[in-house]
Amino acid sequence: MTRGAVNLLLLRERASAFLFKMENLRMRCVCAIASAVLSLCVSAAFAAPTTQPSASTSNASVAGIVKAESEVPLSEMVIYLEPAEGAAPIAAPATQPSARVSQKEAQFAPRLLVVTVGQAVEFVNDEDRPIEHNVFSNSPTKKFDLGLYGPGQSKTVTFDKPGPVFLYCSIHRYMDGVVFVSPTPYTSRVSEDGKYKIENVPPGKWVLKTWQRRKRFMEKTMPVTVETGKTAAMDMELTKR
Ligand SMILES: [Cu+2]
Q1: CB neighbour burial string for 21-57, b if at least 16 within 10 angstroms, e if fewer
Q2: How much distance in Å is there from the Cα of 192 to the middle of ligand 1?
Q3: CATH number of the domain at 91-182, out of 2.60.40.420, 1.10.101.10, 2.120.10.10, 2.40.50.140?
Q4: How many angstroms does the Cα of residue 177 sit away from the middle of ligand 1?
Q5: What dotted CATH number matches 49-88+188-241?
Q6: What is the mean pLDDT of residues 32-50?
């Protein structure tokens, strides 16, 4: 073999070794990129919030007519759902916007406010004139005393137990209102013609209950089964106390 031929062979060997190394490196790069992409995908899959079947997609409701003596306005009546015994407890909505009660012209507005357990209520002194109010309650559901404060100021109370909370003002004896704290967000006011409708109820077994501001009638407790896409018809007749 001539010296030139040997050199050529050596050169070819080196070249092929170099090419092999390059190929190796390329494969490693491809592998590294692929594994990075894969791990990103996997972590994205786990990090993404899992879509829970939400109440708003159940398209189920509970509705009906409340019959009582016609002269009685039923607008200060609340119908609400409680989970049936043994049913999974309902987690309070993670974020609930705070509700608001006005004190303008020495009146609580709305006079009856329905909130869900855990929800906060802002009591705002929105008087145009320099009038101070002192909102308080002695109800077992929530005892509080916000003290005196003037126009432009507001104080917030979080209602952490279900039940009625009667509102008063220590300055104006005629000011009265009520916050009804429902154990679940599934509530409806009864209209003056007796109709009510609780919408977007998760399917399952529930107990329907009534609450009246003026206790003129016996309260009702009725079991109800809610099915996806259906309206459970729950009419009721109230009896005098
Ligand atoms: Cu007042």
Answers
A1: eeeeeeeeeeeeeeeeeeeeeeeeeeeeeeeeeebee
A2: 28
A3: 2.60.40.420
A4: 11
A5: 2.60.40.1120
A6: 37
